[in-house]
Each structure stands twice: as structure tokens, then as C-alpha cells.
């Protein structure tokens, strides 16, 4: 009898626990629903002066911007909604898409932090380095890293870049005889990685010939795709949902592969330091990027921690090779599709370099027409299509519209560069837009391939030098033509890529 009473008591106790748990869950769901409702009402109110395309109350514009059509869609909406419009990533998260130079100037004149809702997704991969830091920490790291991009540091890099480019061109010469076009993005990525390892880390990686290096390139490619997918899917912004999802598992594996490569770079140099080479490094005539990191001291006299060192190396490994590879690949494509400008560049390069046996820092400043073509290509195909900011202060835009503090904006560089209100006939390749007389007439924030203001790209001189070296040596050896059967499909995946690659015909010049 007592046993039956105990069972009945236990059953009643479990039933009570279940009822209480259900009630607590219900209350939490109601509170969360109320929070989301209030959040949406605030966003609708804050963005009411910025008309845009209709958005679903739950999933926003998620279905309106498929990856392969996103850039074209943004350009068409810019024609309909001048200056800016809100893009809803879900019913409870929106960014003001900005593509007007006056609007952008107002935003970049301030020192608002990077958009936390977006850039935090990069932290597991590249850590808290210069790209994602804000405030005093960013200022400190920027000050410590600036010496790494001084002209005295960059000058000897030109010869190292040229060595890497010639390895790539030798491969292209052999492959061009096979009677098919070449997909150049992967080749260029390996070349920029090889060049970066020589310039920034004083390491002869041989990665263009070593297939194992492709694992890092593939990891970076996977991460840019997976993180873009997460950014555009508001439901995956939850860390719990994302890391438990199949996409999150793929991201974790790709991060591990990328870190294995960068860990080797750091450990190799640490081993050198253990052999007593720090004094030797500090006395080198030309310091590389890692030298500067290792020798850098904060205002309090402290060195960078292992975590900070790792973050800056991962950041520069990504930005210094993948972003630059995007720029180079699209510049080559732009000139391949405009043979008259390609030939003018070739003639200028021949006058300055002769047969190209030697290329130096001084040569790079003697290529004005080639530089104009590069700038026009970067206008049409900016390597970083957009950047984000969180507003610390309420902004009043030139037309009187107001966006309150606490909201986020996306500075859409690609759409800015294709904005017909800013650039007449924006789809036309016209290098003379960047002639000295025309540059004087441009708006200061109409052309932003490297952003602007205090947070402009610290490595823009490094990137421009490498683009010039690649273009000069390539055009001396090859005539470039597009594969019309495989036109590229530009997509935004942190950097500007082509969904189906960039395919060119290479004709050896005699």
C-alpha cells in the first residue's frame, strides 16, 4: 500500500514539475515575443523616413536577394530609392544600405565602430585584430602596425612580388598551350599568398607549386561563402542555432584548416626567436610585417599578447592575400574585355620596363595610364563590396533625414561605384575618369575601393603595388582575352568573387 502511495506521489510530483516547466517556457516565449515585437516597432519607427522595397514581417528581404542576383538587385534598387534604403535581414534586424557619396561622407567623418552584428561573425576566424577592433584598442593596434606599411618597408617588396608573379606566369605559359581558357582566380590567390609569405613573413613558401597550400586557399574560400550565408540569413545570427547547424560545423572545420596554416607561420618565427634572433630581427635593414608585430610595444611598454599576435596575423593573411587576389583578378578581366586599353597599357609598360627583366619601386610611379586603368577596374569591381557601421550618435543627413543612434548602416561600395547619379554611364569602362583633371571634379567619397577616413585600408599601398607588378609583367608576356562562353558572375562573399570563376584566354606574345 505504501509503495502504491509512493508511486502516486512521485507521478504527481513529476506532473507538477512538467507543468511548471511548461509554464516557465511559455512565459519565456511570451517575453521573447514581446521583446521582438518592441524591437520591430522601434526599427519601423526609426527607418520610416527611408522608403524601400516591401519586406516580410518575419524573414524580411531574405528571399529578395539571392547571392547571384544581389549586386544587380542593389544597383536597380538604388535607381528607385535615392541615397539609401533599409534592407531587412529578418523582421527584427535591418541595415540602412547607403550608396550616396554625401551620406557616406557624413558617416565616415565620424568614428563609429564596425557593425557588431556582422563583424562578430569573423572573430572565431581572424580574432580581434585591426579589422574588427574598435575604440582605443583599434587606435593602439593601428599605431603599432602603421610602420609596417611605410614606404621604406614596402620598397624591397616589389622584387619579392615580381618573383612570385613570374612563377605564376611560367605556369600560365605552360597551361596556355593546352587549348583551353584558364580560370585565373585560384592561380592569383596562390600567387598573392606566396608573395605575402615572402613580404610579410620572410618565408619562401613555394605554395604555388605545393598542393598542400591549396588547403588554406580552400579554407578561406569556404569561410567567405559560409560567413556571407550566415550574414544574409537572420535566423543563423543566433550563435546557438548556427554552431549546432550543418553550416556551423563546416565553418568550424574550415577555421581549423586556416588556423593550422597561420599557426605554422607564427610557430616558425617563435622558434627563431628562441634561438636568440630577436636582436638580429630588430637590426634588419628592412623589417617585415611579423617583425613589426614582434618588436611593437604599447604605450605602457608591453608587447602584443599571443592572442593579439595571432589575430593580426590571421587578419593580414586574409586581407593581404584574398582581397588583393580579388582586385588583381578583376583588373585582368577588365583589361581582357577592353583590348584597346590593354594595348595602351602594354605600350606604356614597354616604354618604362623594356622587356621587364627588372621592375622596381620607381617604375611603379611611371605608369600613369596603367594606374588609371587599374582604378577604373577597381571602380567597376571593388574587392570589398560593402562595409558596416553601428551609429553611436544620431545622424542628420544632408537632405534632412535622420537616423537615430543604435542603428546600423551598410556602406555599399559596389552600388556607390555603379550609381548613375554619381558616375555617368557607370557600366562603361573609361580610365579617363581618373585623369588628373577629372579627379579634381570627383566627389571626395565617390570612389572608395579602400574605404576612407581614419579606418581606411592600412594595406592599400601594398595592394596597389602588387596589382601594378602583376599587370605590368603579365601584359609584357600575354595578350588577354575573355572566354565569352564562361562570362563571370560577380557575387559578394566578403570579397568580390565570381560564382563560376574568371576565365581568360592567354596568348603568348613574341
TrEMBL record:
Gene Ontology terms: cellular component: endoplasmic reticulum membrane
In terms of Gene3D superfamilies, this protein maps to:
Cytochrome P450
Q: Which Pfam families match?
A: p450
Q: Which cofactor does it need?
A: heme
Tagged with keyword Zinc: no
GO MF terms, alphabetically ordered: heme binding; iron ion binding; oxidoreductase activity, acting on paired donors, with incorporation or reduction of molecular oxygen, reduced flavin or flavoprotein as one donor, and incorporation of one atom of oxygen
Task: Name the GO terms of the biological process aspect.
Answer: lipid metabolic process
Which residues are recorded as binding heme?
457
Recorded superkingdom: Eukaryota
Q: Where in the cell is it found?
A: Endoplasmic reticulum membrane
Task: Name the InterPro entries on file.
Answer: Cyt_P450, Cyt_P450_CS, Cyt_P450_E_grp-I, Cyt_P450_sf, Cytochrome_P450_Monoox
> What keywords are assigned to this protein?
Endoplasmic reticulum, Heme, Iron, Membrane, Metal-binding, Monooxygenase, Oxidoreductase
Q: Which family does the entry's similarity section mention?
A: Belongs to the cytochrome P450 family.
- What is the name of this protein? Cytochrome P450 family 4 subfamily A member 11
Amino acid at each position: 500500500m505504501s509503495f502504491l502511495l509512493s508511486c502516486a506521489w512521485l507521478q504527481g510530483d513529476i506532473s507538477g514539475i512538467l507543468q511548471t516547466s511548461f509554464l516557465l517556457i511559455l512565459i519565456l516565449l511570451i517575453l521573447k515575443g514581446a521583446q521582438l515585437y518592441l524591437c520591430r516597432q522601434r526599427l519601423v519607427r526609426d527607418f520610416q523616413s527611408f522608403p524601400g522595397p516591401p519586406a516580410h514581417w518575419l524573414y524580411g528581404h531574405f528571399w529578395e536577394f539571392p547571392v547571384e542576383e544581389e549586386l544587380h538587385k542593389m544597383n536597380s534598387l538604388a535607381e528607385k530609392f535615392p541615397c539609401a534604403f533599409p534592407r531587412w535581414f529578418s523582421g527584427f534586424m535591418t541595415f540602412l544600405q547607403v550608396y550616396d557619396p554625401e551620406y557616406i561622407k557624413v558617416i565616415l567623418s565620424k568614428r563609429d565602430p564596425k557593425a557588431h552584428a556582422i563583424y562578430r561573425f569573423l572573430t572565431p576566424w581572424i580574432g580581434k585584430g585591426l579589422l574588427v577592433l574598435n575604440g582605443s584598442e583599434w587606435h593602439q593596434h593601428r599605431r603599432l602596425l602603421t610602420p609596417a606599411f611605410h614606404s621604406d618597408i614596402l620598397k624591397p617588396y616589389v622584387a619579392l612580388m615580381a618573383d612570385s608573379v613570374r612563377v605564376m606566369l611560367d605556369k600560365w605559359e605552360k597551361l596556355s598551350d593546352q587549348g583551353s581558357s584558364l580560370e585565373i582566380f585560384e592561380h592569383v590567390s596562390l600567387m598573392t599568398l606566396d608573395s605575402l609569405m615572402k613580404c610579410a613573413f620572410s618565408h619562401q613558401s613555394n605554395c604555388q607549386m605545393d598542393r598542400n597550400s591549396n588547403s588554406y586557399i580552400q579554407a578561406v574560400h569556404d569561410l567567405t561563402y559560409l560567413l556571407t550565408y550566415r550574414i544574409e540569413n537572420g535566423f543563423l545570427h543566433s550563435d546557438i542555432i548556427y554552431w549546432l547547424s550543418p553550416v556551423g560545423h563546416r565553418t568550424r572545420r574550415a577555421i581549423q584548416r586556416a588556423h593550422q596554416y597561420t599557426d605554422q607561420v607564427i610557430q616558425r618565427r617563435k622558434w627563431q626567436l628562441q634561438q636568440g634572433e630577436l636582436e638580429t630581427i630588430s637590426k634588419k635593414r628592412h623589417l617585415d610585417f611579423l617583425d613589426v608585430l614582434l618588436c611593437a610595444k604599447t604605450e605602457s611598454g608591453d608587447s602584443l599578447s599571443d592572442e593579439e599576435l595571432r589575430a593580426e596575423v590571421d587578419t593580414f593573411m586574409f586581407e593581404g592575400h584574398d582581397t588583393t587576389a580579388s582586385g588583381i583578378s578583376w583588373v585582368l578581366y577588365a583589361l581582357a574585355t577592353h583590348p584597346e586599353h590593354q594595348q595602351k597599357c602594354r605600350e606604356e609598360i614597354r616604354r618604362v620596363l623594356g622587356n621587364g627583366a627588372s621592375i622596381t619601386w620607381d617604375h611603379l610611379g611611371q605608369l600613369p595610364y596603367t594606374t588609371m586603368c587599374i582604378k577604373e577596374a577597381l571602380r567597376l569591381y571593388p574587392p570589398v563590396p560593402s562595409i558596416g557601421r553601428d551609429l553611436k550618435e544620431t545622424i542628420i543627413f544632408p537632405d534632412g533625414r535622420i537616423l537615430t543612434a543604435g542603428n546600423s548602416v551598410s556602406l555599399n561600395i559596389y552600388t556607390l561605384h555603379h550609381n548613375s547619379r554619381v558616375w555617368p554611364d557607370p557600366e562603361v569602362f573609361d580610365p579617363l575618369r581618373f585623369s588628373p583633371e577629372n579627379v579634381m571634379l570627383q566627389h571626395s567619397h565617390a570612389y572608395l575601393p579602400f574605404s576612407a577616413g581614419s579606418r581606411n585600408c592600412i594595406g592599400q599601398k601594398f595592394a596597389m603595388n602588387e596589382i601594378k607588378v602583376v599587370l605590368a609583367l603579365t601584359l609584357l608576356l600575354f595578350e588577354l582575352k575573355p572566354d565569352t562562353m564562361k562570362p563571370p558572375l560577380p557575387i559578394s562573399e566578403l570579397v568580390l568573387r565570381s560564382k563560376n570563376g574568371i576565365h581568360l584566354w592567354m596568348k603568348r606574345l613574341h
